[in-house]
Design a protein that fits this description.
The complex is a heterodimer of chains A (272) and B (266). Chain A has eight helices and ten strands. With 272 residues, chain A is α/β, with parallel strands linked by helices. The longest helix of chain A is centred in the last third of the chain and has 28 residues. The two termini of chain A are 32 Å apart. With 266 residues, chain B is an all-alpha fold. Helices cover 80% and strands 0% of the residues of chain B. The chains are: A alpha/beta (272), B mainly alpha (266). Chains A and B meet through strand 6, helix 3 and helix 5 of A and helix 7 and helix 8 of B.
């Protein structure tokens, strides 16, 4: 399967496979996956739990190395994590011992991205405003709600100005209202500062609303089943979700993902 | 605990501290009351159970005539020296063991062996090696502080959520930066717990050491009370040990509350 390669491809997954060795035998999680992300692409991966989406994201983040094939960023193979890729984790990972502003400036205090104090202050002010954290600059994360913690994690990732964002179910642990608010904010932020994004999500609606392209991933081992281009123009607003085109696409994708879910269940049952 | 922003923690902290002091005072008042009642009823032989007033008189007398303050000072100094020196070794060792799995597998059994030995059991050996001077007592205390502290620190480091390390790596942190900016602050609560535990263990050990061999110190006070059959003196010694240990623990708890203002609590 050859991947559709846009001329300004920044990220390339080329025939990537990965097998985890475990006590109960080896588990092949990713099988011969190829795709690419161009400048400004927003690509979502949707597929059943435990299908290897996270492994794919972690390969690009530099936490996991592929067994075969290659993952390249601007033509160079990914060898480890780096601040050119911002990673947003589902469990936020905000540092409880740092205040909101200290969390945001964490990355720009590190040697690899060190900025002078004056500039750090501007960065903090900018992202506090952008992520609607005003008034909480000196608060510790224990005083923040779940949605605010995730916004803080986003602000911290943004502060080092990565041009690629890797988001692993960033809104998965939030209630529906907060989730919607954060999706809109992400849209707002991306309109202001366009990034290349790889998003893992379980929500078909979230994927359609945010993405320029959606990859449907099969049950384990991960293969790309379908690639769907989402052509709605940016920036998108909530009324998009009420359009017939949006709803038609949603139904179509939900059907495919239900099939995949059933297959994964079968797989799990057989494994037992 | 994903609560909404709560009220200012500092004012709450003040109220809690006052309530704590109040509760503490009340519970001690109750104990002294029962003690006084027990003495007054003569249920226990008055030769064996002095009255609170008698103990207080003995305390004043010892403070003014027998340099009781020197005993308090000496014992406290020994404990502090033991805790500080013991943890000065335990903190780096604990960090290394917590961080490098390979070394841990290697050193774990040894640490558990020595940890299982009550420091008091080593006192005879230490006396043979160092005599009965100050080095003997302090070395036992360093031993006690080290082994009680090291395990708390390295178990604590093992428990640092891996996500914290990953976030730092993704933001471009070097290993040294991860250590300095993530591991140390994340381990701080455990280091402070280690201090509290070490202080407790050192007091226990110290008194045992002073009972065996010391001319001065609160343990020696208790022994002299026994030798001259002065029960009030024994009481003064016991109460002083408890009081000083309580004060030390309180100081550590205040330091903890201050350094760990960020921690989520129940």
């Amino acid at each position: 399967m050859s991947a559709p390669t846009s001329p300004v491809a920044r990220v390339n997954f080329d025939r990537v496979s990965k097998t985890y060795k475990g006590a109960q035998g080896d588990v092949k999680v990713v099988s011969d996956v190829s795709f690419s992300l161009g400048e400004g692409d927003f690509v979502s991966l949707i597929g059943p739990s435990g299908c290897g989406k996270t492994t794919m994201l972690q390969m690009l983040a530099g936490f996991v190395a592929p067994d075969t094939g290659s993952v390249t960023l601007d033509g160079k193979p990914v060898t480890g994590p780096g601040s050119d890729r911002g990673v947003i984790f589902q469990e936020y990972g905000v540092y409880p011992w740092l205040t909101v502003e200290k969390n945001i400036e964490f990355g720009v205090r590190l040697a690899s991205n060190a900025k002078p104090a004056q500039e750090r202050k501007q960065i903090v002010e900018h992202y506090v405003k952008l992520m609607h954290l005003n008034g909480f600059e000196k608060a510790y994360p224990k005083h923040l709600s779940g949605g605010m913690r995730q916004r803080l994690a986003l602000a911290r990732a943004y502060a080092v100005n990565p041009n690629i964002l890797l988001m692993d179910e960033p809104f998965g642990a939030l209630d529906a209202q907060t989730r919607l608010a954060l999706q809109l904010q992400l849209m707002e932020v991306l309109t202001e500062e366009r990034k290349t994004v790889l998003l893992i999500t379980h929500s078909v609606e979230e994927a359609i609303f945010l993405s320029t392209r959606i990859l449907i991933i099969s049950a384990r081992p991960s293969r790309i089943l379908r690639t769907i281009d989402v052509d709605f123009p940016y920036p998108r607003t909530p009324d998009l979700t009420a359009t017939p085109q949006f709803q038609r696409l949603r139904l179509e994708l939900e059907e495919i993902s239900m099939q995949q879910y059933a297959e994964q269940q079968k797989l799990a049952a057989n494994a037992r | 605990m994903q609560g909404k922003a709560r009220g200012t923690p500092r004012s709450q902290g003040g109220a809690v501290a006052i309530m704590g002091l109040l509760y503490g005072t009340v519970s001690f008042a109750v104990i002294i009351g029962i003690w006084a009642l027990l003495w007054w009823s003569a249920f226990v032989d008055r030769g064996l159970l002095p009255s609170p007033a008698e103990v207080l008189r003995q305390f004043t007398k010892m403070m003014t005539e027998k340099q009781l303050w020197l005993d308090i000072l000496l014992s406290s100094r020994r404990v502090l020296l033991g805790v500080v020196c013991g943890l000065a070794i335990a903190i780096p060792v604990g960090f290394v063991l917590g961080w490098y799995r390979g070394i841990r597998a290697f050193v774990d059994p040894v640490i558990n062996f020595f940890r299982a030995l009550p420091p008091i059991a080593l006192i005879p050996l230490v006396i043979v090696y160092f005599g009965i001077g100050e080095p003997a007592r302090v070395s036992v205390l360093i031993y006690a502080a080290f082994f009680s502290g090291v395990i708390v620190i390295y178990e604590g480091i093992k428990l640092i959520p891996p996500i914290y390390i990953r976030v730092a790596k993704a933001l471009g942190a070097t290993d040294f930066e991860i250590f300095k900016r993530v591991v140390i602050p994340a381990a701080l609560p455990h280091v402070l717990t280690a201090f509290r535990i070490a202080v407790g263990v050192c007091w226990t050990t110290l008194v045992a050491a002073e009972l065996v061999a010391a001319e001065r110190g609160l343990g020696a006070v208790i022994v002299s009370g026994q030798n001259y059959f002065q029960v009030p003196t024994i009481f003064v010694g016991i109460i002083m040990i408890g009081t000083v240990a309580l004060v030390m623990d309180k100081v550590l708890r205040l330091a903890t509350a201050r350094l760990l203002a960020w921690q989520e609590t129940f």
